[in-house]
């Protein structure tokens, strides 16, 4: 069993969790106060990257870099959205530079998808 096949269930799990969180956070943002933009941004990241993880899980056997992209995008989304939600509801972020670290991880995850276009199966 390949690494991509072993990580696919984890990608499915986080795709579902991010979808759920994205919808819940969108509802919270709609009823939020002055800091609703933080929750809305977290919602947007979850709703953008949940389907991405689903696609990576479905196509894991076709894209050699799916495991790397999934880890980077999943961890990045957790850090980015988690930091914004913590800032809104707990009054402080997860740790200094958590959101930017998560953002860079997501960007590198997308680059891993692009690099996968040039790595032949074989």
From TrEMBL:
Keywords: Membrane, Signal, Transmembrane, Transmembrane helix. Residues 1-26 form the signal peptide. The chain crosses the membrane at residues 36-59, 66-91, 97-119. InterPro entries: DUF423 (IPR006696). It comes from the Bacteria. It holds the Pfam family DUF423. This is UPF0382 membrane protein.
């Amino acid at each position: 069993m390949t690494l991509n096949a072993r990580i696919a269930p984890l990608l499915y799990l986080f795709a579902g969790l991010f979808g759920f969180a994205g919808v819940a956070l969108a509802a919270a943002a709609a009823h939020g106060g002055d800091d609703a933009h933080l929750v809305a941004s977290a919602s947007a990241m979850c709703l953008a990257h949940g389907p991405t993880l689903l696609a990576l899980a479905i196509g894991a056997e076709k894209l050699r870099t799916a495991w790397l992209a999934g880890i980077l995008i999943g961890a990045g989304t957790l850090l980015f959205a988690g930091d914004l939600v913590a800032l809104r509801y707990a009054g402080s972020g997860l740790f200094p530079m958590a959101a930017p670290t998560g953002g860079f991880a997501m960007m590198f995850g997308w680059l891993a998808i692009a690099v996968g276009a040039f790595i032949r199966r074989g």
